[in-house]
Design brief:
heterodimer; A: 9-stranded mixed sheet; 19 helices; 9 strands; about 15% strand; globular; B: 15 helices; about 75% helix
């Protein structure tokens, strides 16, 4: 009688053998070169150019081969996982505000010894870029590649239709509010807003700069007390909340989440103004390709103590577990070299981290853009990074919920901020009693 | 000789389940055990875990955000009976020998085999308050549709309705269909001879005869209700507005992967496990009494 059991077993064995034989295993190249792994997600459309840059690095450094990996999806979870598994790339593209949460866990290499050894010129960098990662005289774990301050995007056509003068340096919060109200319209008379006056940030990173602008702060200088429930902070929060609560002048009235499709809505003429980081530039330009929108940028409106401008950047770090720190440093220097940074920033409409590029006439008077690059530099010079305080990493979501509740009329902002501050103070006290360095993490 | 044959058969059986069991152990059992242990530690992934005993649990029981997410989860689970009723209704409809009935069965089953993320993004557009399909249709009958996903009041019903639509034609419908086809037709014939109406036949014959399936579906729905809906919350509302749609799974995810509180997230997962276990045992004890075999 035919033995089906043996036949099945044999077939299964043959299938496994076949798979193992034809499986395309990674080839181990033994050519004596050092292999550096780079983790970075190039901007959309820039992938090919980025590979060309890496090829150029390999050409100028014949003893090094660069293996470029990408990490789509939740980038920092992947980076963490790779670090825990000791499989992290040697050089990683990082956001400045993320550096601290990794730095305090000794996962990033201090580049200062190599900077000093090679007399690397840090003075050419905008100071705020290094401050974004809380670099000091002794410790630099991050080199910024590009960074951005907050600007005011505005739709010139909508301003013309409403007979409003374009925003300028003299604009105050009051001017901004009046313009937002005038730009808000129910065009078809159905009782629903079709054109929103403005977009302001109803989240942690978006709201804190308004508090600064009104003379408030997130924490005291010793980082022992949260100040988000102080009068200056409450006044600032009420101002931005009233844009929606009283005047229905924000894109929240258009429905949907504010961050979904904001730049598309702006490019299609449904939003009059956006107060946001200049990172929005390539997105608006991309979204505006199919429309004839005329738009410009200006400085955000002045408050009592300045403008609501925050800074954020991205750049390079070296994993502390790298087996090739010197080679990794060479790659970082190359990626941040004058030539590469200039190409990268010019092609992607980013603001370079080097003064020699950002302050150059070539950057400030680009012929291929319709906006004034001087505003970008002006904003950058007036900006400051968010206080990245590790102890407060969980407060950003509580803050966002508090803003939501106040915006929707479920509660008043003072009551909600008192709750947030109570939790924040407890976290700050716990960390100071545990003697943990209060260094930062992203709250966005 | 018989012993040898039995041993060989046993060995063959174990070999066949070995790949699956290995995967289960590596990707399910061991991580679950690790999570149970981590619940008693403070761990941010990058540094060594620090034993804190019941510290995570004491924190959890005074954490308003956790209880808010538990409340939201319970509210989102109120769609379970509706979903089950909808699945049963569809199963009754497709349990007929009509021409082209296979086409109908396929169409109703389609949403459950479509990409989940694609469906969620589609529903996000359907719920758009300005030009979403739902509000446009409502406007034709003079109703001013709300900001579905941006309203604290409407966000949960919106997710519940979407969950019912997505799930009603799926596995539950198939299970009910199989159960309906297993009902002895002589019972209906006997009821016809006694002059029973369609409703009485449904209530006194169909429902009792499919009660084992109903019990199974209800139990599984309760378990997945406590654990699930992460993707719909993550994609469609991000837990908002004002935390009104943050459910347990999303809250656990946020603590684990956004706030790096792996130990605390593990303690919440352990509590969730306990809740699901208790709910299942209660269901087993009392729900089982309603089952007719």
């Amino acid at each position: 009688m035919f033995n089906w059991y043996k036949l099945t077993f044999l077939l299964g064995f043959l299938v496994i053998l076949f798979v193992l034989l034809v499986y395309d295993r990674p080839k181990i190249i033994n050519d004596g070169k050092i292999e550096l792994r780079l983790l970075a997600n190039p901007p959309p459309g820039y992938e090919k150019k980025f590979e060309e840059l890496l090829a150029l690095f390999e050409k100028t450094h014949p003893n090094i081969r660069v293996k470029h990996n990408k990490a789509p999806g939740n980038y920092y979870i992947k980076v963490q996982t790779m670090m825990v598994g000791k499989t992290c790339a040697d050089v990683v593209h990082f956001s400045g505000k993320q550096v601290n949460s990794f730095k305090i866990k000794d996962t990033l290499l201090n580049l200062m010894p190599m900077i000093k050894r090679d007399n690397y010129d840090l003075d050419d960098y905008f100071k705020v870029g290094l401050e974004d990662a809380q670099s000091t005289e002794q410790e630099v774990h991050y080199l910024p590649l590009e960074g951005s301050g907050t600007v005011l995007f505005y739709n010139k056509d909508l301003f013309d239709q409403a007979n409003l003068s374009y925003p300028d340096d003299s604009w105050t919060w009051q001017d901004f509010q009046e313009a937002a109200i005038k730009l808000t319209k129910d065009i078809d008379g159905d009782g629903r807003i079709d054109q929103a006056g403005c977009v302001v940030g109803y989240w942690w990173a978006g709201a804190i700069p308004w508090i600064w602008s009104n003379g408030g702060n997130m924490v005291n200088t010793q980082h022992t007390k949260c100040l988000l429930n102080q009068p200056e902070a409450i006044e600032a929060l009420n101002f931005i909340l009233d844009l929606e609560r009283k005047h229905h002048a924000t894109a929240k009235s258009l429905g949907g989440t504010e961050s979904a499709g904001v730049y598309e809505n702006f490019a299609s003429g449904r939003i009059g103004m956006i107060v946001a980081l200049a990172y929005g530039l390539p997105m608006i330009m991309d979204a505006g390709k199919n429309s004839n929108i005329r738009w410009g940028i200006a400085m955000p409106p002045k408050g009592k103590y300045g403008r609501p401008i925050r800074y954020t950047s991205s750049g390079w770090v070296v994993w502390s577990g790298t087996k090739h720190p010197d080679e990794a440093w060479e790659l970082v220097k190359f990626l941040n070299s004058h030539k590469v940074m200039k190409e990268y920033c010019f092609d992607n409409y980013y603001i370079p981290a080097r003064k020699s590029i950002g302050l150059s006439p070539e950057f400030r008077n680009r012929p291929d853009t319709s906006f004034d690059e001087n505003v970008l530099i002006q904003s950058l010079l007036a900006s400051r990074p968010l206080d990245n305080i590790y102890a407060l990493r969980s407060i950003s979501s509580d803050f966002g919920i508090a803003l939501d509740k106040a915006r929707l009329g479920m509660s008043d902002i003072q009551t909600e901020m008192d709750k947030v501050v109570k939790k924040a103070d407890a976290a700050l006290n716990e960390h100071s009693s545990n003697n943990i360095a209060t260094e930062g993490v992203d709250h966005d | 000789m018989i012993e040898k044959k039995k041993l060989r058969e046993c060995a063959a059986g174990f070999l066949f389940i070995l790949p699956n069991f290995t995967g289960f152990m590596i990707f399910t059992l061991l991580p679950v055990c690790a999570a149970f242990i981590l619940a008693f530690y403070k761990w941010d992934i990058l540094t060594a875990p620090q034993f804190i005993g019941l510290g995570n649990f004491t924190r959890l029981f005074s954490d308003k955000a956790f209880w808010n997410s538990f409340y939201n989860t319970l509210i989102l689970m109120t769609g379970i009976p509706l979903s089950m009723a909808a699945s049963l209704f569809l199963a009754l409809m497709v349990n007929k020998s009509l021409r082209g009935i296979i086409v109908y069965r396929t169409l109703y089953f389609f949403p459950s085999i479509c990409s989940g993320i694609g469906l969620l993004l589609l529903w996000r557009w359907i719920y758009n308050p300005d030009f979403g399909l739902l509000n446009v249709l409502l406007s034709y009958i003079g109703i001013d549709g709300p900001n579905w996903l941006g309203s604290v009041f409407w966000a949960k019903p919106a997710l519940i309705f979407m969950g019912i639509w997505t799930g009603m034609g799926g596995t539950n419908m198939i299970l009910y269909l199989a159960a309906l086809q297993g009902v002895n037709p002589e019972l209906y014939e006997a009821a016809d001879m006694d002059g029973a109406s369609n409703w009485r036949k449904f209530y006194h014959i169909t429902l009792p005869m499919i009660s084992p399936t109903t019990f199974f579906i209800f139990t599984m729905s309760i378990i997945s209700g406590f654990q699930g809906s992460f993707d719909s919350v993550f994609i469609m509302t991000g837990g908002g507005p004002a935390g009104s749609t943050t459910n347990l799974s999303f809250h656990i995810y946020r603590n684990a992967y956004e706030l790096f509180n792996m130990g605390y997230a593990s303690s919440m997962a352990l509590v969730l496990f306990a809740i699901v276990l208790v709910a299942t045992l209660i269901n087993w004890k009392y729900g089982g009494k309603k089952v007719t075999y």
